[in-house]
Design goal:
The complex is a heterodimer of chains A (472) and B (203). Chain A has 472 residues and is α/β, with parallel strands linked by helices. Chain A is built from 18 helices and 19 strands. Chain A folds into 2 domains: 274 residues, Aconitase, domain 3 (2-Layer Sandwich); 171 residues, Aconitase, domain 3, CATH 3.30.499. Chain A has a 5-stranded parallel beta sheet. In chain A, a hairpin with a 7-residue loop joins strand 13 and strand 14. In chain A, helix 2 crosses helix 3. Chain A is globular. Chain B has 203 residues and is of the alpha/beta class. Chain B has a single domain, classed as Alpha-Beta Barrel (Aconitase, domain 4). Chain B is 31% helix and 19% strand. Chain B starts with 5 loop residues before the first strand and ends in a 6-residue tail after the last helix. Classes of the chains: A alpha/beta (472), B alpha/beta (203). At the A-B interface, helix 2, helix 3, helix 5, strand 8 and helix 10 of A face helix 4, helix 7 and helix 8 of B.
Chain lengths: 472, 203
């Protein structure tokens, strides 16, 4: 019988089931971070339970670590956040699980480092008490975000009991215009179908656009699936994915490689497999997108106007009016980073816009690479110099300003353009007005001092090869 | 966990779509690594004029005198979307909420409710409109989980769907980990067989 990729992943991990409901699904890897993972470890410890397979559990410090350069090992950006760091460390050590501490050279945002270290692989099941775990579906993994209780359940039992979700395929057709990225596609899709558009579905992204996207772009696309209310997202692994995983710390070793790679080749949807729902979405007309409101579905083209249907609550919070052009709104802050857009290709796109330019007066501009590996790679090609010369600060890896946890942030009512995933009320600080966009659009807006289309800057950059030469 | 069977209580209208878990419990209100001490931070950004000083905002539904002692929340679409933080559910539970009624739920939030003795009920928007269309203050609703029905005082009852596993967790107040550990032999057998198939996963 024809199977989808998701059917195959489910079957590989199905230990058993019960009538009318939930299956026991084997969990190959559990990842934790200090913000919600600490609660999972604490719940287990309080019951005297330990991990069934500590070698397949990974704790990472990312959510509340300071993003200041030269941060201390326990230094947090949140008041009282050091407790989350020190308790997670102590409990991880006591449980004998892998610990990727704040001062570890491998440290970074959990979803960014999972592929860097070969923790996520095609065909593995992987959970983390973090909603953006769906990012890892870009590797053809069965990856989804859970609560702390389910994370504890996975660690103690090796399985999660869950009902198989319905499935949707989103086929992305057409050709992406220059200056338009995976982030723009995700925002356009969510705007078209609503923030509940993928509700409870396992969504496979497919089609020529997906196959032509970089792996990092695919991660951005899958990352935003939770903002589409999806159970998770996934993409069939291709040769690029397989190649990218060679020699990663937890990847299959030489003896296992051929068997693993052969298995990964089978991880794709059969030609006539059926989905519960199908969306065919043409990306050719998509422009760089930006959100105007307080849900990711409130997205419009960067040159567009706030819709006449915009609700008062969101308009009031954002300090905007129906019919208003966003391009005229000056900004006070710009943030580039996060599990959505904190990888090397994201920093390269932003640097393309920033090279030889200056952030506008009055704009606090912050870049925090998603991991230490990303930061090192960016520095190796001189991107840090471009960011710093433009007036961006260059931070120590972690979730940083994607969400406010107390502590330093932008001022109330500050208008901020951000390469992150959520524009919820207060997400980046009390009263802070977040506009979501791609890294290129964030960079362009930081330079312009108002919400701006990156394509003009990118075209100029392309037309100035001497600037390129001056860089090196 | 506390079993859930029948429940009658004061229901608070929070008829907004896409209420995310950052609103239910802002990250800055997550002050300990444990599961308790969170109810003061519940809806902190909306409930208080000044969250730091805990000055209540009288305009917020949860603060209305008639709604004191509320045990049910009624919301719109996609309630509990966003962050996976189970602290949102722990804060609701500690506050005394036993049931949340919404058009739909964020997937992780929904699962977290079932694991913490809170019943999430999905109803069509029209049913929610009918349940809340009364001038009586406070609004009182009755929930019957065994029969999967919810009703207002003197109003129609509405049936709701719930997965058998979630229903069992709530009805029996089961401990999911304890339940699954009973299946340890099957899990061990699976791992042994899977290790032969996918050795690289078990490095």
């Amino acid at each position: 019988m024809s199977q989808t990729l998701f059917d195959k992943l489910w079957a590989i991990h199905r230990v058993g089931g019960e009538t009318g409901g939930a299956d026991l699904i084997a969990i190959d890897r559990t990842m934790l971070h200090e913000r919600t993972g600490a609660a999972a470890l604490k719940a287990l410890a309080s019951r005297g339970l330990g991990p069934i397979a500590p070698e397949r559990v990974f704790a990472v410090m990312d959510h509340v670590v300071s993003f200041k350069e030269g941060r201390g090992k326990n230094e947090s950006r949140a008041p009282g956040g050091d407790i989350f760091i020190t308790e997670t460390r102590a409990m991880a050590e006591a449980a004998g699980i892998h610990l990727i501490d704040s001062d570890d050279a491998r440290q970074g945002i959990v979803h960014v480092i999972a592929p860097e270290l070969g923790i996520v692989l095609p065909g593995v099941s992987i959970v983390c008490p973090d909603s953006h775990t769906c990012s890892l579906g870009a590797y053809g993994a069965l990856a989804w975000g859970v609560g702390s209780s389910d994370a504890a359940h996975a660690i103690a039992t090796g399985v999660i009991r869950i009902k198989k979700p319905q499935q949707m395929r989103v086929t992305l057709e057409g050709v992406l215009a220059d200056g338009v990225s995976a982030k723009d596609v995700a925002l356009a899709l969510i705007a078209a179908y609503g923030a509940g558009g993928g509700a409870r579905m396992a969504i496979e992204f497919d089609g020529p656009v997906v196959r032509n996207l970089s792996i990092e772009g695919r991660m951005t696309l899958c990352n935003m699936a939770v903002e589409f209310a999806a159970f998770t997202a996934l993409i069939a692994p291709d040769d690029h994915v397989v190649e990218s995983l060679k020699g990663r710390g937890f990847s299959p070793d030489t003896a296992d490689w051929d068997a693993a790679a052969a298995h990964w080749q089978t991880l794709k949807t059969d030609p006539d497999a059926a989905f519960d729902k199908e969306i065919i979405f043409d990306v050719s007309a998509i422009a760089p997108m930006v959100t105007w409101g307080t849900s990711p579905e409130d997205a419009i083209a960067v040159s567009g106007k706030v819709p006449a249907t915009a609700n008062d609550r969101a308009l009031d919070y954002m300090g905007l009016a129906q019919g208003q052009s966003l391009a005229e709104e000056s900004i006070a802050g710009a943030f580039i980073g996060s599990c959505t857009n904190g990888r090397l290709s994201d920093l390269r796109q932003a640097a393309e816009v920033l090279r030889g330019r200056q952030v506008a007066d009055g704009v606090q501009a912050v870049c925090v690479p998603g991991s230490k590996s990303v930061r090192r790679a960016a520095e190796a090609e001189g991107l840090d110099k471009i960011f710093r010369a433009a007036g961006f600060s260059w931070g120590a890896p972690g979730c940083a300003m994607c969400f406010y946890a107390g502590g330093e942030t932008f001022a109330p009512e500050a208008r901020v353009i951000s390469s992150t995933n959520r524009n919820f009320e207060g997400r980046q600080g009390p009263g802070v007005r977040t506009h979501l966009a791609s890294p290129a659009t964030v960079a362009a807006s930081a330079i312009a001092g108002h919400i701006a289309d990156p394509r003009g800057y990118l075209a100029e950059a392309a037309a100035e090869p001497e600037t390129e030469a001056a860089r090196s | 966990m506390t079993p859930f069977t029948q429940h009658t209580g004061i229901a608070v209208r929070l008829l907004i779509d896409n209420v995310d878990t950052d609103q239910i419990i802002p990250s800055y209100e997550m002050k300990t690594t444990g599961q308790s001490g969170l109810s003061d931070g519940l809806f902190a950004g909306w409930r208080y004029l000044d969250p730091a000083k805990r000055v209540p905002d009288p305009a917020f539904a949860l603060n209305a005198p008639a709604n004191q002692g509320a045990t049910i929340l009624i919301a719109g679409e996609n309630f509990g979307c966003g962050s996976s933080r189970e602290h949102a559910v722990w804060a609701l539970a500690e506050f005394g909420i036993r049931c949340v009624v919404a058009v739909s739920f964020g997937e992780i939030f929904h699962g977290n409710c079932l694991r913490n003795s809170i019943l999430p009920i999905s109803l069509p928007r029209e049913a929610i409109t009918k349940l809340t269309a009364t001038d009586a203050e406070p609004l009182r609703l009755s929930v019957d989980l065994p029969h999967q029905e919810i009703s207002g005082e003197g109003a129609d009852a509405f049936g709701f769907e719930i997965d058998p596993y979630g229903k069992r967790l709530l009805l029996e107040g089961l401990d999911p980990i304890g339940l699954t550990l009973k299946e340890r032999p099957a899990i061990d057998a699976f791992h042994a067989a899977d290790k032969a198939r996918r050795s690289w996963v078990y490095r």
